[in-house]
Write a structure and sequence with these properties.
homodimer, alpha/beta, Stationary-phase Survival Protein Sure Homolog, Chain: A, two-stranded antiparallel sheet, 7 helices, globular
Chain lengths: 249, 249
């Protein structure tokens, strides 16, 4: 089996190294990842400038672009092999609820799915003292399952692992995307030259305690596994809109 | 009524000027938009550095960040008023099918929706000779309708207008996100210093001719109106996954 690994924390991060090590048990691992941190880059794609690629060791490529650039490059010409699987992570921090739409790690897996390869994003729900063992082990277990099923078009799995000792993790739950709450206040300050600047804030204020969500599963000590898709249509609301009248032209 | 306008082509683009002019008939327009082109920036959010804001004229702010940054800043502290509506566009080019997940214009509207404001993204399906009149007029007509209904959480409208004379447009259709086909080949070249570089390609190879999609509606000469959401869960597949067994721990 051939596996493409990427992430958004950069090619030297602890999370990607733990992931590579674990997946090497399953097959040949190819890493194509950003040369520096690219958190919160979402699905940004670099079209207006060329990309540089450095082969830093065999099957190990650093790209001066976004996570989506890395996966796009890898699957459309950089690699001479076609991977059977794309795994993105292990992210240093959660990708739960609204985080998903901002996440470079999840977007790398979305790009894999858009290009027709079974894809997984994996995140460790912690902000310090990252111990990736349980997340890496769970990913290996999930991969063996995923390769036995047929995924719908443009569909991927988003995995979040609680940062507690493995023996305390209660198991895993199939979940939907939840809702996180952030304090949205921006920070307004004055720089050393007397000019104003703004910094986007976002203190973690918890999450909506809805059963069945990724947030709730992790809160209860389970690994969350959420099937995501790149189709953003709100199908339920689409039906409601059928009665809409727009007086035009 | 107070309306926030943004886009991804930058604050000086023709599309945003046409949109502002049209929306001024409906209320007070506040523009917070990138100071330079930010196409294909998706939902990228700038967290690792401060943002600069320049008030280039009254109610007109240029930001050195992404479309998502602009809307986040505007709604969380930069503006002293709370807008009733966010409109992003008019995009210079289509945002149909898979384009949606890469689009900065759509993401600006997604950010508005995430922050609880009714939001619309508008795009003109052309690559040259941009005439925004019909798109601007349709947006005004759509706004009057949208403000009469209650949108579900994190839901927005994505509008694509064919680039044909207004009298040839057949009307509008309620649609779902379609599937575009791109040639995914990357361009590999050598720079003037003899070093290799890569450029992401993507020739337009048409789209899947599925009825009910945004791509198909525009192809047939209709304006497409697609309700989108920020929830990426694949609910149908979630049900299928209930039988999944993962041997862990």
């Amino acid at each position: 089996m051939k596996i493409l690994v990427s992430n958004d924390d950069g090619i030297s991060s602890g999370g990607i190294l733990a992931l590579e090590r674990a997946l090497q048990k399953l097959g040949d691992v190819y890493t194509v990842a950003p040369d520096r941190p690219q958190s919160s880059m979402s699905h940004a794609l670099t079209l207006h400038r060329p990309l540089r690629v450095e082969e830093i060791s065999p099957r190990h490529y650093a790209v001066d672009g976004t996570p989506t650039d890395c996966v796009k490059l890898a699957l459309t010409g950089l690699l001479t092999v076609k991977p059977d699987l794309v795994v993105s992570g292990i992210n240093h921090g959660p990708n739960l609820g609204d985080d998903i739409i901002y996440s470079g790690t999840v977007s790398a897996a979305i790009e894999g799915a858009l290009l027709g390869i079974p894809s997984i994003a994996v995140s460790l729900v912690s902000f310090k003292d990252f111990i990736f063992d349980a997340a890496a082990e769970f990913t290996v277990a999930l991969v063996s399952q995923i390769l036995q099923i047929t995924l719908p078009p443009s569909t991927l799995f988003n995995v979040n692992v609680p940062a507690i000792p493995k023996q305390e993790i209660k198991g895993w739950k199939l979940t939907r995307q939840g809702k996180r709450h952030y304090s949205e206040k921006i920070v307004e300050r004055v720089d050393p030259r007397g000019r104003k600047y703004y910094w986007i804030g976002g203190d973690d204020l918890g999450f909506a305690h809805d059963n069945g969500t990724d947030c709730m599963a992790v809160h209860e000590g389970f690994v969350s596994v959420t099937p995501l898709q790149a189709d953003l249509t709100n199908y339920r609301f689409l039906q409601e809109c059928r009665s809409m009248v727009i007086p035009w032209p």
